[in-house]
Design goal:
The complex is a heterodimer. Chain A has helices at residues 6-11, 18-25, 29-34, 36-53, 72-90, 93-116, 121-135, 150-157, 181-187, 189-202, 213-224, 238-248, 255-267, 272-275, 287-298, 312-317, and strands at residues 140-142, 145-149, 171-173, 176-179. By secondary structure, chain A is mainly alpha-helical. Chain A folds into 3 domains: 6-120 and 192-224, no CATH class; 138-187, no CATH class; 232-340, no CATH class. In chain A, helix 4 crosses helix 6 (93-116), helix 6 (93-116) runs antiparallel to helix 9 and helix 6 crosses helix 10. Chain A is globular. The model of chain A is unreliable at 229-233 (pLDDT under 50). By secondary structure, chain B is of the alpha+beta class. Chain B contains 10 helices and 20 strands. In chain B, helix 1 packs across helix 10 (358-366) and helix 5 crosses helix 6. The chains are: A mainly alpha, B alpha+beta. Bound molecules: iron/sulfur cluster and zinc ion (2 copies). Residues 114, 116-117, 119, 127, 129-130, 132 of chain B line the site of one zinc ion.
Chain lengths: 341, 373
């Protein structure tokens, strides 16, 4: 584990060992529930989640790189740790996902700033180490650029759909890809979110602590707003079920998978408005873009051609097929469940 | 193929494997590789693991395969079914094939064999005898085909060395035994990357999927300073050399490109890609579970051997990859195209009974242009 200074933990609180941190600071969780001065921090933690749930990034008390007040640092870390406690107590997975994503975006900003900080060598060294330790991407500094091995670059860039991330559209030299600080951090965005998410998921759930109930209840009602859209998957073929599951878990479904799912459901008569919410949990969800794409597939915009669901054969080559015996003798997912002769 | 042809091919191949066993050796880290082979007129046997040259030679002598393969991947258990093999890593492999190069010479040395009546002709759409459209194409690659493939190999090596930091010593080039070359890159940073990453790598190597911005063209806020220069590394440098030609023309051509606009630039890029991109078969490179023709083994599409090219420029497959015996044999040959092997000219033959050396007979039989008399 990295040895971190106070201000570094405040920027990257997910790197801290929560229990150890509280102990080092001389606190126990119970105290936060009872001590009126500390109780405000639970409010702060709730706020941190609420902001995240809205898809925004929590604005911290950290003022740029240096901190106004000594006390702000531990409070910053506490609100993060308490937020996790609240989330665990509420058991609301949709909120955890949103929280992890927002925290990742927040950390991303600091990472980028630290990387670009040319006046303070130790800052960009830390960022470089965080990226290496967590995601095994070896970043080296070369003038104004950061260079990473092509193989490391590929492992991450293949998750992007935008053409600018294709290797051919990158400055490649001598086995290395040249990136700006922003691009370097953007490259690991998804993994950062996954990392924070799994840290929260794997954290122990404490028993209810007196003084935490109110905020936990507020979280439960907050999460109703984000209840995942559930579709009845009864008659859907395995490939479609699988795609829906991936999306519900908030994981990244490749473009080909989204295409298959959307064209399948459209062919089954669902409307764009019915389908769109399915994509809400995708790590890169953008409502406007999603609607635009769905309308395009449905043929209600642009070319006017409705796209059809790809064949099983095609889906097999895209590793999207999860055939079961019920798939026997069909060549397109749309035929799934139809009576065989 | 008739029984006597198969017996003849098997006999010739067997002699090769017996007399040239020093030429056909197992690759490094043998026990981590998967081997496979095919016999004439039968399917593939794979998931074989071998310990050393001895076991390989035994396998060859016992089975007399038409084709022999070995994985570029390394596994913990190469002989188990695919999903239990425990994939560890794989060498990078590239396939360059003359048939993918759109060469103009190709038509002149390609024949069609009718599946229904076996008629051989140079008409490519239908059988001249029975009008059937079920035709099998066979090509007898010419010097131009080989030279053009060599150029692609040179282009590939440059990208591998300059852009991807693979050392020259870790690149090996083989004549495929038929119409092109197989290139291996060992010990690179890419050993452990998967199929999707390899697919991205092939797009890079063949200059596919580039956007105008990469080469300096913008939709808005255009600026001459964004365009590539001759000393730029990688594709920007190669783009400069191809598109600008000379330093003195750079400025004028940039003005033209800007005047033609963004959309037209995309077309320019397609043309550039077609001309300077390396023409490799993406499916070969991205397949990390492939078994690939074993160096030193015979390619049953031609009877020629997959041969290491120490000096690619000088390499002549028709003298250096033909190892079968000079003993003569009688065949019925129907080859409208002439060819040269071991510095001797053969054909054209018009349904005639001829006596030729074994290596030439095998070549024609493999191409379905002759049968044992
Ligand atoms: S066989 Fe077809 S329907 Fe079944 S899982 Fe595969 S792609 Fe889907
Ligand atoms: Zn015919
Ligand atoms: Zn030719």
């Amino acid at each position: 584990m990295l040895a971190l200074g106070q201000d570094e933990i405040a920027k990257y609180p997910f790197l801290a060992d929560a229990g150890q941190y509280l102990k080092d600071q001389g606190f126990s969780l119970d105290q936060f529930g009872s001590d009126p001065d500390l109780k405000q921090l639970i409010e702060k933690a709730y706020e941190r989640i609420r902001v995240a749930a809205d898809g925004k990034i929590y604005k911290s008390d950290l003022d740029g790189d240096h901190v106004s007040k000594e006390a702000a640092l531990p409070r910053e870390v506490f609100s993060f740790l308490l937020a996790i406690v609240l989330l665990k107590l509420s058991g609301m997975h949709t909120l955890i996902k949103r929280f992890a994503l927002a925290e990742a975006r927040r950390a991303e900003k600091y990472l980028e700033k630290d990387l670009a900080n040319i006046s303070d060598e130790s800052k960009n060294q830390l960022a470089i180490r965080v990226i290496d330790d967590l995601f095994s991407v070896q970043v080296k500094k070369s003038d104004d650029y950061f260079i990473i091995p092509v193989s490391d670059y590929l492992k991450h860039s293949i998750n992007f759909h935008e053409r600018e991330w294709k290797l051919i559209n990158r400055h490649v030299e001598n086995g290395q890809v040249f990136l700006s600080p922003h691009e370097t951090v953007r490259l690991i965005r998804k993994e950062l979110g996954t990392y924070i998410n799994s840290k929260i998921i794997n954290a122990k759930t404490p028993t209810m602590i007196p003084g935490f109930e109110d905020s936990v209840n507020k979280l439960v009602s907050l999460s109703k707003k984000f209840a995942t859209y559930t579709v009845t998957t009864g008659e859907y073929p395995p490939c479609v079920k699988h795609a829906i599951e991936i999306l519900e878990k908030g994981e990244n479904l490749p473009h080909s998978g989204r295409f298959m799912l959307a064209t399948f459901l459209l062919s089954k008569g669902q409307t764009v408005q019915q389908i769109a919410p399915l994509f809400k949990n995708a790590p890169d969800y953008n409502e406007r873009v999603t609607l635009y794409q769905l309308n395009h597939l449905a043929g209600t915009s642009g070319s006017g051609t409705q796209y059809s669901c790809p064949s099983c054969e095609k889906l097999k080559t895209q590793s999207l097929c999860f055939a079961t015996s019920e798939c026997d003798n069909i060549i397109n997912p749309l035929q799934f469940g139809r009576k065989k002769k | 193929m008739q029984e006597s042809d198969i017996l003849f091919l098997e006999d010739s191949f067997k002699k090769y494997y017996f007399n040239h066993f020093d030429q056909i050796t197992v690759p490094e880290r043998t026990s981590e590789r998967e081997f496979g082979y095919q016999k004439f007129n039968s399917g593939m046997t794979r998931h074989i693991s071998l310990k050393d040259d001895k076991e390989l030679h035994l396998m060859l002598m016992q089975n007399i395969p038409s084709d022999v393969y070995c994985s570029n991947a390394y596994y913990t258990f190469p002989n188990l079914p695919m999903n239990e093999k425990d994939w560890k890593e794989a060498d990078l492999i590239f396939d360059i094939d003359a048939k993918d190069l759109n060469l103009s010479c190709r038509e002149s040395h390609t024949v069609s064999i009718c599946n229904d009546c076996n008629e051989v002709s140079k008409i490519s759409t239908h059988c001249s005898k029975c009008n059937s459209s079920k035709l099998e194409k066979k090509s007898l690659p010419c010097k131009n085909c080989i030279d053009a493939s060599k150029i692609e190999v040179e282009k590939l090596s440059k990208v591998l060395i300059d852009d991807l930091a693979i050392t020259k010593e870790n690149i090996q080039v083989y004549f495929s035994g038929n119409e092109g070359f197989h290139v291996y890159a060992y010990n690179s940073q890419f050993q452990e990357i998967g199929s999707r990453e390899r697919s991205e790598l092939t797009d890079y190597i063949s200059l596919r999927g580039a956007i105008p911005e990469t080469f300096g063209m913008r939709k808005l806020k255009q600026n001459r300073a964004y365009f590539p220069d001759f000393d730029d590394k990688g594709w920007r440098g190669r783009f400069s050399k191809y598109v600008f030609g000379s330093k003195s023309k750079r400025s004028k051509i940039i003005t033209e490109l800007l005047a033609n606009g963004y959309t037209s630039f995309q077309k320019t890029l397609d043309d550039v890609s077609e001309n300077i991109g390396v023409k490799i078969d993406p499916n070969v490179t991205m397949d990390v579970h492939r078994i690939f023709r074993l160096p030193g083994s015979i390619n049953s599409k031609s009877g020629l051997t997959k041969t290491l090219c120490d000096d690619l420029t000088k390499f002549d497959p028709y003298t250096e990859a033909s190892f079968l015996s000079d003993d003569t044999v009688e065949v019925f040959a129907n080859s409208p195209i002439e060819f040269k092997l071991k510095n001797k000219k053969f054909g054209p033959y018009n349904n005639e009974k001829i006596t030729v050396p074994t290596y030439a007979a095998v070549y024609m039989i493999c191409k379905k242009l002759a049968r044992i008399a």
